[in-house]
Amino acid sequence: MLSFREALAEDEFPVCPEGENDLDPSDGWDVDFSLEDAVRPEIRLYAGARPDVTLCCNGGRKLLAHRRILAEVGYFESLFQDLDQVDLTVEEDLETFLEVIRWIYCRSATSDKERALDLLRLAESYEIEGLIDHAARVLAAPFSCPTDGENVLDEERLEKEDHDIVKAFLHEEESPKEGIPPKPHKMKDV
């Protein structure tokens, strides 16, 4: 059996191969996978193409996209027929609008309930049926249980309120504290 040093000496390839293209990180490596496999087949044509539309979101943040991909959505198709602009202003925050773009490109979007309502609003305004269904399913899904580190309610406050309610009933306080229901009185027989 060869030692590690002997194996390295016999290895004909350098540890870090030198490629011809410094911009391509896979150049010089024997790579069997393709990131494009996860992308819809009709989008693969645009994988190497430069984006030709800049979408300017709130806060001055920009998102680059392909006009022909966005034109799959009727809203953008009609917008691009009327305009020859390459810069479009979108009055939305980047994180929410990015989910719309992600849906257009990948047919996938977040399942985060905190963003689902905004996502549903955008999907309805852009008339993207699949995204409307996705956001509605996210909103209809049951809430998940909190993890060990999370507290949904302030336990100390609840414990104090419970203690005050019990105290009010046991000591028959006539004027209970605010928020505590008064003790029901017994009716006398007539």
From TrEMBL:
InterPro entries: BTB/POZ_dom (IPR000210), SKP1/BTB/POZ_sf (IPR011333)
Secretion signal span: none
Domain BTB: 51-113
Gene3D superfamilies on file: Potassium Channel Kv1.1, Chain A (3.30.710.10)
Source species, domain of life: Eukaryota
Ranges where the record places region Disordered: 171-190
Short name of any one Pfam family annotated for the protein: BTB
Protein name: Protein roadkill
Lineage of producing organism: Eukaryota, Sar, Alveolata, Dinophyceae, Suessiales
